[in-house]
Amino acid sequence: MYRTHTCGELRAENIGTEVKLSGWVQKTRELGGMTFVDIRDRYGITQLVFDDSKNAQLAENAANLGREYVINIVGDVIERESKNKNIPTGEIEILVKQLIVLNESETPPFTIEDETDGGDELRMKYRYLDLRRSPLQKSLKLRHDMGIAIRNYLHKQGFYEIETPYLIKSTPEGARDFVVPSRMNENQFYALPQSPQTFKQLLMVAGYDKYFQIVKCFRDEDLRADRQPEFTQIDCEMAFVERDDILNVFEGLTKYLFKEVKGFEFEGDFQKMPYDTAMELYGSDKPDIRFDMKFVELTKTVANSGFVVFDSAEYVAGITAKGCSEYTRKQLDALTDFVKKPQIGAQGLVYCKYNEDGTLKSSVDKFFDADALKQWAEVMNAEPGDLMLILAGNKKKTQSALCELRLEMGKQLGLMNRNTFAPLWVVDFPLLEWNEDSKRFFAMHHPFTSPKPDDLHYFDSEPGRMKANAYDLVINGVEIGGGSIRIHDKDIQSKMFDTLGFSKEEANDQFGFLMNAFKYGAPPHGGVAFGFDRLVSLFAGFDSIRDTIAFPKNNSGRDVMIDSPSFIAKEQLDELNIQLKAKQ
Fold first, then answer.
1. What is the extent of the structural domain holding 506?
2. What is the per-residue pLDDT across 189-200, written as a single tens digit (0 to 9) for each?
3. Are residues 339 and 241 in the same domain?
């Protein structure tokens, strides 16, 4: 037996007990003939004491222990003289009688502590060491707890957890597929699933009216803090349901997780906000509603002023930052530089201070007198002490830039409290997006999303006007998940493929199996997929999903720990009948 207890288990009531512990050496220190060693496992830390006057050789051996040595000890639990209230085991220590070194360790490349000195790439290279740190251990425990809670909730709701294939058929819509060559089917390829979309619809046709899966998905897309090439979804589908049936079940799941895992309870129903409203008020289909600062359009208010930036703009709008009239010129210049960044794309920033004494001072006083500025303040609900920030230009680009400015002001003013949670459902998305370059429509979500029933007549006349029977759950400006009511009628599905520019042959080649299934009695159905990694990072208070995943990839899609992706042997390529193209 290597241990009778874990390193986080012993308390004052265990004093006088002989115990065995095993774990890693956190640190050692010598003090007045005594050697103290902190031993650590995933459960916690316990202090060991080696008394030189009782066993000099044992104390000398302890003094020679290095960080991350794996040790086993036998000793007696005693009361600790200098108690440590910061750890659960802080009232006791172990007077060691026997020490065995199970494995030595080289000096780690970074300190394995809550606050480490290792950079991101170094910690990812030695991820097995990084995972020993308490923050990551807590994160993975949180992930485990949430997974258990999700399964418990859905099980009680009558869902079956059903696995779907990882080697599937490549489809042209959505992000790029990861492809896998098939040795047994020469010159043919599988794709890794971007989601189990078609399979969960087939399960509905098969009569399994409540399906879920906590499942890996794969997308070959550019990475960022909340994206990984392989990620995990809580994937769900239901039959014989309408939109609100699904929203009720998965709003219930969200509330259940917050209560069970975080001890947080929401009051009332989640807000439902149409997509068009979200764009008009926040410039985003995933608005952060923890704070106000809604957009106010000023296009008509500032028209024909002689200020060419406004007069020539398709759209002029602004936000009011409460209590910010004292912003300095340096701060305002920094905001101007912020909105002019290439990734944000605004041409400039107009500001107007509503001073505490009631006077108004703007960056465009040459074009607008006090009465005009007063009108701005009235339209924007500004009061003395506030700051108005205004952008102008193309509507879509300006809304996007103003969204980023709003979020930046939210950060500067401390309005994004991580312990505040503001959920909403964004609904009634456009069904289709027009691409000017290819002169065709693309599905805003995917080709199986149903139009709103009242919009079906637009298929033949104005397909761009159709709204999708779709919905996204957004919490604190993060899209946690989304889904839709699906098309279950084969004729409507054919019409959707036609509108998206698929020929009959292409549609049959890509999705013939689904269309055939619809011939055999497909029920009305719909579903939702939550981003499990994003949900865990929201609960953990992380900005990046990487720290919720045991072995993530870096921003280049590489696993620097195992050095993947990597080249493979020519023999393997020959067996797969693959020839690599020389880099130009």
1. 136-273+423-549
2. 999 999 999 999
3. no
